[in-house]
Prior knowledge:
The chain is α/β, with parallel strands linked by helices. It has three domains: 2-95, Winged helix-like DNA-binding domain superfamily/Winged helix DNA-binding domain (Arc Repressor Mutant, subunit A), CATH 1.10.10.10; 99-171 and 280-302, D-Maltodextrin-Binding Protein, domain 2 (3-Layer(aba) Sandwich), CATH 3.40.190; 173-277, D-Maltodextrin-Binding Protein, domain 2, CATH 3.40.190. Helices cover 47% and strands 24% of the residues. The protein has helices at 2-25, 28-35, 39-53, 69-96, 109-126, 139-147, 209-220, 236-244, 254-262, 292-302; strands spanning 58-61, 64-67, 101-107, 130-136, 153-156, 166-180, 190-191, 200-204, 228-233, 250-253, 266-271, 277-284. Strands 3, 4, 5, 6, 7, 10, 11 and 12 form an eight-stranded mixed beta sheet that branches. A two-stranded antiparallel sheet has the order 1-2. Helix 7 links the parallel strand 8 and strand 9. The radius of gyration is 25 Å and the shape is elongated. The protein starts with a helix and ends with a helix.
Amino acid sequence: MKKNKEVNIALNIESLRMFCRVIDEGSISKAARLGYVTQPAVTKQIHQLEARYDVLLFERTDGKLIPTKAGKTLYPFARNIIETFGQSQEAIKEVTGNGEVVLYVGASYTIGDYLLPKLMRDFQENFPKYKFNLTIENTPNILSKLDSKEIDIALVESAVNNSELLVERFAEDELLVVLPSNHPWQDKEAVTVNKLMGERMIWREAESGTRLIVENALKEMGVSEKIKTSMELGSIQSIKSAVEANLGISILPKLTVERELQYGILTKVSIADLSITRDLWMVRKPQRFSKEVLTHFVAFMRSK
């Protein structure tokens, strides 16, 4: 009897999950495709829910599948049940040690490519039982995944102004003027900001958060529009390669060029009358039940 009850609960959870997917996609066929099941299987699960609640959850209007008032009412409850059930499974795994416990981390490109690998290594040395699932995208996409609860925590470079999120600064990164190793400034410790006007600048794309920080700082110094643009490139790695090839100079986050500076592939110079830094942020959604692994990871990040 107990086993049958467990199966029944699992079926109800899956029915609720499919019900939400149908609403999200607006189509049974799309929901079936995403769930790797047949359309009749989706329809059967919806009918099971309708029988349980004794109400119609969808209706067709002008050929479109529209949730009824009851369907709209059920949706947030279904989402909450699915989330809580998932959290309970993770919690039991953590307590019993049965099965992998995974922390889903989202990071913006610079953090994900250059900072997070070492942090994950250090964290797993202290907590070897935990696994990571890492997503690296731009900040808006990462925050969107946090909002939809696809990830447990976001690590981003841009400040996040959202009172519904837990936003915490975890590090600071300096932005450096990066030069080819044979540049005339290679032996200088610092130059004035006006010297940049005689150089060819290699920029990230216009939407880059790093570029926005640099341009605002240079604008305050009155030199932003006087600096010659050599090219715009879509990644930090391509910019580093272009600087190495003597195609210009750039201003890049320190954490992205530490290896090149260490081995003399690139060199750097300070701006005597300007210092550009940016904060790195840890972002979470408030949760009634928080994963133990997330609690450990947040404490670990605070200790760095």
